[in-house]
Each structure stands twice: as structure tokens, then as C-alpha cells.
């Protein structure tokens, strides 16, 4: 008996194991389905993952996991699950349909169509697949084909939800609105709890002029999903639009009564009140809510924000102090300290701010807000070495903090670690690709390094994602202006005028383009429209003054600027332009005094130094231009753009060694600056043409120009190739550059002529060199062009 008692359990265990993995995975799968029916997707997910641990190629488990992710709006994970299910089971119709719908929602119409067609190949009358194919066809503008698909689906299932919605949308697109409404009514009757259908029906009722029925649908939604505040907000907005403020307020208060312990309904009422009755009224309501629920800290923080919007600093501080007193070092108390520290920082009371931040970090050394703000304070004190450790700690705790990443970039830039600064900003862009701040800061770094083209590419990349952002459009337009890219600016102007005809930026840019094209009177008219749309905008006012100046209406130009300065006496741009007006009319002493005033007001700003230097160049005093730029460089902590301009001024003065040193300084911290590399390479090729080391350095500088479409860069590359003995390569490069131009500049004619001469193509060489010399232009190599032309003539005479 003992033997049998010992063998029995072992035999039972073996039988249990023998029942094997298939039975266990089926048990897990069935249990997952049961949990889904019970409304517990979290536990169901674990059961389906158990299935996949046993059999990673179980398509149904992948499908169910995808369904759970879709239910939680984790669309990427859901797509991955459906995709895996289809991969494992190519005839899995449900997975095809779900994946196809996600693809359709993402705008990948052809891929969505492929999924629909895959199902229809298996089941030609599948209504879900027909509706999906019809939706794709409707999106592509083929309404007739979409109608046929919807009708075919309805023949199979007269109450098919997607087919009815599709057919209604087609009818609405065909302006058969009443028929669309009838279809939606039919769909709602068949699917009474479907939120999207009722929203579509409400919109339809509005289109046919029946607001009472639209209201009825919106009210029904608040009953179907009473916890979804979006329905209440939508109803309140509709009632407000209809002029029934009382009913809108009642709807909002009804949501509060239905959810008395929830904060959001109360904040929704406050937001509506602020919008409809003013901030003071909203503040009164919020005060009441705080009194009723003193431990609901979200209400107190909202109260502080609203008081701040009204400029009530004492009240803001009192609210934060009350939170700190009530919550101590709890979560809300620490948050209040951070907010109060930010307030102190804004008031330039940084020592008090640091005390508050110290209290936070003593309690929680990982607090991201406190670390980030302490770093920001360090940067205002020009202490990047103190800021960087705090920012690294903050990013370790929150790698996606764009504020910390942008501050880290600023800290690295302060230490001349430009590559590290760009890396930090790129991470910020990757984290928040639709936020403009990091793009603008990246563009600023590139501009300061002289890489205007790179800055433009960064801003254009943002506008591909968010085309209506006027701040970035304006920055791009300024870059296009600095690069003299008038065709691109014209396109930018038209795009803004089309999208935002109410915004002054489009008119301003169009005015600049007209100004460039010599249509000065037209530019004046357009710029006046920009000023009408925003009277305090300085750029259109400055552009208008320039148009007056170009028209010879100096008095009008000066009057417009002095009028603006009477209202904004310290505006640097206007002060600079007044200096330009003085210079244009030959009043050089007044111009110099004007630029000196700007420098005294804004000693850290590069623009006035460049204008003063340009004025000195214009009056023939190159030494003073160099001196002015050196002063500006020292005052601005060696601003890269001013160092670049110094290089140009030194080159113009024939001080080539100093110019080379200036260019090399810029490139050391900004190796991607093509404009600087271009100037340096050309200078080396001309001034040190007999020095192999210098020519090798020039060749290194221009290697990246080979794929460029800018003729200036190609001309430099070709000339450097020629100086390095590669005449054939130079010819190919220069001919590519010439093909981009209608009129070839004299310097490029000289370069091409020299290449032709070295290749023995004397007639072409003489033609090019003669054109260069006879152009009247002064360019580096003019004497060499004359000498070569003389040698060619002598050679021709000897040969004759």
C-alpha cells in the first residue's frame, strides 16, 4: 500500500505534465477572455502574455493584446500586435481590419486599402472590409466608388455602423445634408450608445438648422458617459454659442453636482466663467471652491495661476504660503515652494529663491523642477559649471524635460561646447517635435556660428510639422532675408497670407519682396496694411521707412522712424535704422553718433558694431572698422558672428594672416559654418597659393561643398581644386556652378578662364578672362587675370 500511495501522486503529476503546454496555453487564453468580459484588461493582458511565453507564435493572443492596447489608446503597441497577428496568420481577417483602420486613421491610405482588399479576397461581401475600402476611396475623392462600397455593406448588414457613417459623410460632401442626417439617425437608432455617431448627428442637425435636436444629442452624451467631462464642455460651448449662458452654466454646475469629489468639473466652470464673465468672476468662484475644499491643492494652485494672470502677486504668494503651511513638506508643499521660488526668480530675488529650492532639495534631492530652476539661476549668474550637474541630475530623473535640455544647451554654449549644445537641443526636438522653442534656439546657435543654411533647414523642418507657427515663420523669413533668398521668402509670404490673412507677417514679407523687386510704391501700400494689423510691430515700420528711403523720400523715412521712436525710444532696430537713414543722406557724423548711442545702450548686442564698422568701410577707414569690431567682440564674449565680420574686414584691409586667424577661431567652435569655411578656403587659395600646407587646409575646408547646390560654394570648391592641381575636377565643378546662373560674376569668369588656360583651351580662356577684366569689377586675382591674358595673347602671336 505504501508503494501504491507513493506512485499514485507521481503518476498524477506525470499526467498533469503530459496534458502539456497546449492545454495550459488554452487555459490561459480562455481565462484572458473571461477577464476581458469581466472588465479587467490589466489581468487579461497577463494571461495573454502567459500564452505567448508558451507559444510566441499564437496569433489570437497577439490579437487580444492588440485589442487591449487599442482600448487604452496605445496605438503604436496596438498596431504592433495586429501586425504580428497578420504576420503569423495571413488570413486573419479581424487583424487585417483592425490594422487597416489604424492605418487609415494615420493617413496611410494605400496600406489601409491593402488590408481591406486582403479581407475581401477571402470574403468578398465582408461589410467591415467594404466599409474600410469605401472610406479610403472617399478620402481619395472617389465618392461614387465609396457609395457603392457603403451600399454593398448595408445590403449585408442594414445597420452596419461604419457603412452608415461613411454613406452619411459622402452625402454631406455632396451637400445632401438632409439625407446625411437621416442616415445618421438610422445609425444612432441601431447603435444608441455610440458617441461618435451622436456627435456626427448633432453636427448634422446644426447644418440643417435644427439646434434644439443638436442640443438633445449633446445632452444625451452627458448621460451616456457622465464621467467624461468633454461632453459637458462641448454642451456648454454649444449653449454659449446659442446665447444661452444660463443653461451653459447650469450644465457645468450639474457636472459638479454629479461628481462632487472631482476637481476637474470645478475647474471647467472656472474656465468658462473667466471666458464669459471675466477673470475676477472666475477668481471669486475659485475662492469659494477652495473654502469648501481646503485640502484640494489642485484648486489652490489653479487659484494662484488665475491670480497671477491678474497681476495679483500678493495673492499668489499668499496662496503658495498657505499651501506650504498646510502641507509642510508633502508633495503639494514642495510644489508650492518651487512655484514661489520661480516667482522670486522672476522678481530677481534669487537668494530667496535659492533658499526655497534648498528646502525642496533637502527633502527630495531628485526634484526635477527644483534642480532645473537652480540651474537657471546659475546660468543667469554666468556659472554654467554649477548648472550642468543639476541639469544632468534633472535629466536622469526626467530624460524628456525639454526645459532642462534647453538650459543644458545654453550652459554648454556658454562653455563654447557647441556640439554638446546642439546635441541637447536635438534631444529636446526629438522629445517635443511640435514645440518651436528648441528649433528656434538651435537655429540661433547655427546663425551665431555663421551656418545660415543649416539654421534655415532646422526651421523649415519644424514648419513641415506645424506650418502655421508665425514665430518660426518670422524667424525663417529673417534668415531668408539674411541669405538674400528672395524666392523662398516670396513662397513663405504667400503661404502665410493664404493660411493667416489676418496676421501682419504675410503682408510684411510680401512688402519686403516687393521692395527687393523694385516695386517700391506697391511695397509701401502692403507694408501699411501690415502696420494697420499691428501698429506696434517694429519690423513693418522699419521696412516702410526703407521703402521711403529707396524712393528718395528721406523725409518720410526719417519721419516714420522718429514717430516710432517717440513711442519706443530705446528700440535698437529703430535706432539703427535711423543711423542708416543718416548715412544714406551723407550725414555720416550723425550716423556714427546714432550707432554709438545704440552701442552704449546695448553693449552686448552685435548689430550696432557691424553697422558702425560698415559705416567706417563706406568712409574708407578700414582700420576703424577693424577697431570697432574688435571692441564688439570683447564686449560680447567673442560673438562668433562679429569674429566672422572681423575676418572679412581684415581681409578687405589686406591683413590676411589676421583674417585667417579670425576665420579659424570661428571654425574651431563652429565647424559646420559653411560661410566661414568658404571665405577661409578662398583666402588661402588666393593669398597663399604657393603654400602646399595652406592649399591642403583649403581642400579640407571645401570637401563638403561637393554636393551643394549653392553656386558660391561650388565656385570656391572649383577654385581650390584648381590651386591644388586638379584642373579637370575644377572644370567639372565650375561648369556646374555656372549652370545655376544667368549672369556669371567676373570673379567666376576669372576662375573658369584660368582653368581653361591650364587645359590648353586658349580661345575659351581668352573669352572668359577678357570678360572678367573688361567687367570693371575689382576681384582677387585681377592682376593675375591680366597677366594670364597677356601671356595667352603672346602665345597666340608666337604661334601665328
TrEMBL record:
Q: Which residues form the Cytochrome c-type biogenesis protein H TPR domain?
A: 391-498
Species whose genome carries this gene: Thiorhodococcus mannitoliphagus
- What InterPro entries does the database record attribute to this sequence? HAT, TPR-like_helical_dom_sf, TPR_CcmH_CycH, TPR_rpt, Ycf3
Q: Which UniProt keywords apply?
A: Repeat, TPR repeat
Q: What is this protein called?
A: Tetratricopeptide repeat protein
Where are the annotated TPR repeats, by residue? Answer: 25-58, 59-92, 93-126, 127-160, 161-194, 572-605, 640-673
SMART domains registered for this protein in UniProt:
HAT, TPR
What Gene Ontology terms for biological process does this UniProt record contain?
RNA processing
Residues annotated as transmembrane: none
Amino acid at each position: 500500500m505504501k508503494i501504491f500511495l507513493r506512485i499514485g501522486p507521481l503518476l498524477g503529476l506525470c499526467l498533469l505534465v503530459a496534458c502539456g503546454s497546449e492545454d495550459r496555453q488554452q487555459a490561459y487564453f480562455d481565462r484572458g477572455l473571461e477577464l476581458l468580459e469581466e472588465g479587467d484588461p490589466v489581468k487579461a493582458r497577463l494571461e495573454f502574455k502567459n500564452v505567448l511565453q508558451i507559444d510566441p507564435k499564437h496569433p489570437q493572443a497577439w490579437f487580444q493584446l492588440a485589442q487591449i492596447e487599442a482600448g487604452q489608446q496605445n496605438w503604436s503597441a496596438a498596431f504592433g500586435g495586429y501586425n504580428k497577428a497578420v504576420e503569423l496568420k495571413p488570413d486573419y481577417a479581424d487583424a487585417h481590419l483592425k490594422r487597416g483602420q489604424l492605418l487609415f486613421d494615420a493617413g496611410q491610405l494605400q496600406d489601409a486599402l491593402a488590408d481591406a482588399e486582403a479581407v475581401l479576397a477571402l470574403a468578398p461581401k465582408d461589410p467591415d472590409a467594404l466599409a474600410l475600402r469605401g472610406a479610403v476611396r472617399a478620402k481619395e475623392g472617389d465618392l461614387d466608388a465609396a457609395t457603392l462600397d457603403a451600399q454593398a455593406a448595408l445590403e449585408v448588414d442594414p445597420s452596419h455602423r461604419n457603412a452608415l457613417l461613411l454613406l452619411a459623410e459622402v452625402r454631406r460632401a455632396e451637400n445632401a445634408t438632409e439625407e446625411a442626417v437621416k442616415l445618421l439617425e438610422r445609425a444612432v437608432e441601431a447603435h444608441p450608445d455610440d458617441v461618435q455617431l451622436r456627435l456626427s448627428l448633432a453636427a448634422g442637425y446644426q447644418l440643417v438648422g435644427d439646434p434644439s435636436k443638436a442640443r438633445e444629442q449633446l445632452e444625451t452624451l452627458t448621460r451616456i458617459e457622465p464621467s467624461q467631462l468633454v461632453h459637458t464642455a462641448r454642451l456648454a460651448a454649444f449653449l454659449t454659442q446659442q446665447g444661452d449662458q444660463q443653461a451653459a452654466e447650469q450644465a457645468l454646475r450639474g457636472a459638479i453636482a454629479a461628481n462632487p469629489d472631482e476637481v476637474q468639473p470645478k475647474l471647467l466652470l472656472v474656465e468658462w466663467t473667466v471666458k464669459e464673465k471675466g477673470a475676477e468672476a472666475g477668481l471669486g468662484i475659485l475662492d469659494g471652491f477652495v473654502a469648501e475644499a481646503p485640502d484640494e491643492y489642485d484648486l489652490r494652485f489653479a487659484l494662484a495661476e488665475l491670480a497671477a494672470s491678474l497681476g495679483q502677486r500678493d495673492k499668489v504668494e499668499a496662496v503658495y504660503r498657505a499651501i506650504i503651511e498646510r502641507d509642510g513638506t508633502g508633495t503639494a508643499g514642495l510644489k508650492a515652494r518651487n512655484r514661489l521660488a520661480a516667482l522670486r526668480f522672476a522678481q530677481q530675488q534669487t537668494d530667496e529663491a535659492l533658499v526655497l529650492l534648498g528646502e525642496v532639495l533637502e527633502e527630495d534631492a531628485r526634484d526635477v523642477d527644483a534642480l532645473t530652476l537652480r540651474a537657471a539661476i546659475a546660468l543667469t549668474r554666468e556659472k554654467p559649471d554649477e548648472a550642468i550637474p543639476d541639469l544632468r541630475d534633472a535629466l536622469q530623473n526626467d530624460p524628456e524635460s525639454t526645459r532642462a535640455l534647453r538650459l543644458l544647451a545654453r550652459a554648454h554654449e556658454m562653455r563654447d561646447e557647441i556640439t554638446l549644445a546642439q546635441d541637447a537641443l536635438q534631444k529636446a526636438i526629438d522629445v517635443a517635435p511640435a514645440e518651436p522653442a528648441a528649433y528656434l534656439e538651435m537655429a540661433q546657435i547655427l546663425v551665431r556660428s555663421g551656418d545660415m543654411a543649416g539654421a534655415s533647414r532646422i526651421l523649415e523642418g519644424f514648419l513641415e510639422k506645424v506650418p502655421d507657427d508665425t514665430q518660426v515663420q518670422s524667424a525663417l523669413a529673417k534668415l531668408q532675408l539674411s541669405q538674400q533668398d528672395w524666392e523662398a521668402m516670396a513662397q513663405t509670404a504667400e503661404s502665410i497670407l493664404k493660411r493667416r490673412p489676418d496676421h501682419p507677417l504675410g503682408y510684411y514679407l510680401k512688402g519686403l519682396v516687393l521692395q527687393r523687386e523694385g516695386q517700391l510704391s506697391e511695397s509701401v501700400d502692403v507694408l501699411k496694411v501690415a502696420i494697420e494689423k499691428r501698429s506696434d510691430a517694429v519690423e513693418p515700420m522699419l521696412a516702410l521707412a526703407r521703402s521711403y528711403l529707396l524712393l528718395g523720400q528721406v523725409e518720410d523715412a526719417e519721419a516714420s522712424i522718429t514717430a516710432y521712436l517717440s513711442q519706443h525710444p530705446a528700440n535698437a532696430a529703430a535706432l539703427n535704422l535711423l543711423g542708416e537713414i543718416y548715412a544714406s543722406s551723407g550725414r555720416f557724423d550723425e550716423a556714427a553718433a546714432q550707432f554709438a548711442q545704440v552701442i552704449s545702450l546695448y553693449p552686448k548686442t552685435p548689430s550696432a558694431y557691424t553697422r558702425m564698422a560698415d559705416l567706417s568701410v563706406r568712409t574708407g577707414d578700414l582700420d576703424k572698422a577693424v577697431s570697432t569690431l574688435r571692441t564688439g567682440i570683447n564686449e560680447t564674449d567673442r560673438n562668433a558672428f562679429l569674429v566672422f565680420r572681423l575676418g572679412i574686414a581684415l581681409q578687405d584691409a589686406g591683413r590676411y594672416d589676421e583674417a585667417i586667424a579670425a576665420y579659424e577661431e570661428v571654425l574651431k567652435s563652429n565647424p559646420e559654418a559653411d560661410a566661414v569655411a568658404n571665405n577661409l578656403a578662398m583666402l588661402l587659395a588666393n593669398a597663399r597659393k604657393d603654400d602646399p600646407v595652406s592649399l591642403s587646409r583649403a581642400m579640407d575646408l571645401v570637401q563638403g561643398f561637393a554636393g551643394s547646390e549653392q553656386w558660391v560654394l561650388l565656385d570656391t570648391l572649383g577654385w581650390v581644386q584648381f590651386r591644388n592641381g586638379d584642373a579637370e575636377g575644377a572644370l567639372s565643378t565650375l561648369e556646374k556652378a555656372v549652370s545655376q546662373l544667368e549672369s556669371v560674376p567676373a570673379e567666376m569668369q576669372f576662375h573658369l578662364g584660368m582653368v581653361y588656360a591650364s587645359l590648353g583651351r586658349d580661345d575659351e580662356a581668352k573669352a572668359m578672362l577678357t570678360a572678367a577684366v573688361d567687367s570693371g569689377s575689382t576681384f582677387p586675382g585681377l592682376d593675375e587675370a591680366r597677366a594670364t591674358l597677356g601671356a595667352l595673347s603672346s602665345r597666340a602671336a608666337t604661334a601665328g
